[in-house]
Amino acid sequence: MTHSAIPRPWKKPLRRGMLAATTAVLTALVISAAAPTPAATDTRQEPHAAEGPAWTGTWGAAMQRPVEGSEDWGPNWSRQGFTDESVRQVVRVSTGGSTVRIRLSNAYGTTPLRITAATVGRSAGDAQVWPGTARKLTFKGSQGATVAPGRDIASDAATLRTSPLEKLTVTLYFADRTGPATFHRFTTATSYRAPGRHLTDADGAAFTTSTNAWYFLSGVEVSGPASPRRGTVVAFGDSLMDGTGAPPGTDTRFPDKLAERIAADRRPLDVVNAGISGNRILNDSPCYGDKATDRFRRDVLDRPGVRTVIVHLGGNDIGAPKMGDPCMGSAPHVTARQIIDAHKSLIHAAHARGIRAVGATILPMKGALFPVYSERGEKTRTTVNHWIRTSGAYDAVLDVDRALADPAAPALPRPGYVFPDGVHPNEAGSHAIASAMNLDDL
User: Fold this and answer.
1) Is there a contact between 223 and 99 (Cβ–Cβ < 8 Å)?
2) What residues contact residue 134 under an 8 Å CB cut-off, 6+ apart?
3) 221 vs 219: CA distance, rounded Å
4) H/E element holding 320?
5) Higher pLDDT, 46 or 118
6) Cα–Cα separations (whole angstroms), residue 378 to 299, 317, 336, 373
7) φ, ψ at 168 (rounded to 5°)
8) pLDDT tens digits, 239-289
9) Hey, what's the torsion of the CAs at 294, 35, 228, 240, to 10 degrees?
């Protein structure tokens, strides 16, 4: 890859593991994915009551194991964690509500995580908070909380009226050593760190270091009037969802564009991004997350108010044998039948919870500037896409492949719709995918 101007977080990962269009599941797996989580700290799949407010996820991130930063991905603080430090993270909510709460995860922690205190407020850009908007968060009435290894926790509700597409800051203070941090590795947003306690600082001057990752923060949830039309749409998958190809701070990923369409149409639907760059549906990876069939419960089913899930997966499984990426871990050749069976397991688990499932076809993979394409892989991709389009297994289809394909050569992406790596959608491509989504299918 010769694009030396590409920012460091995308440089080699685009060429290696992050690529995938992104880059046989047993019945027992399906049953476990649909079943409640014994270790859950509260019940998150909350039915909409006939009266009173309903909680929905308005922002989210899929959690990953701590992993070292690199020249390719940029630095991160996941391995070292935090001690007597404040972490300020900026998120864009998809819709609004009258109250807000956050969700924190210690999914990959090996010791209890002690949150000393936390706040939420309106972003004023960078690490700044609009004066007077910071709200102290509590956890079952206390200013702090302890999260056991493998678990997560939701804060109490805080009164902060939010509007669609506005940005919030979440600030966490850790007086004690956290140990390695459960986090989300690749983001198009910036998180900030400051020594000491700086929960309500408005100017952000103390936050002098930053990374492009999220730490412990797995969700922001809002409450609003209960309605049969209200709910969360989860974009679940790989780098197409995660946002490879979107410049930092621009909010131009496919889920962002979808949220903008929904907001413009005044629909009471939230959008949560549960993508992980490099993620696969059939195999785990040291750097690119647990396989999708294993993380589906935590990242989709256990979120509050989920109405629909959009699934884009399989490209990394197909391309992994060609990548030569040690961070991918095991990279066996896979068959279309294996990928299809895994998709069926996700559909079954979603339907068991009353969640609609939308299948997204795998985007074009030929013509990339790094080695992922093969004739064998293309046959697999074509077979999987045909099944997604025609089987009727999914409740609806988002045809990513056709939205991005070059009309003159359908195996290739349309040049104006992809990032310089030749695969991942740029802003125009993400807009095209979001425009191809029939909002009535959500």
Assistant:
1) yes
2) 119, 120, 121, 171, 199, 200, 202
3) 6
4) helix 315-323
5) 118
6) 29, 12, 10, 7
7) -120, 155
8) 999 998 888 889 999 999 999 999 999 999 999 999 999 999 999 998 999
9) 0
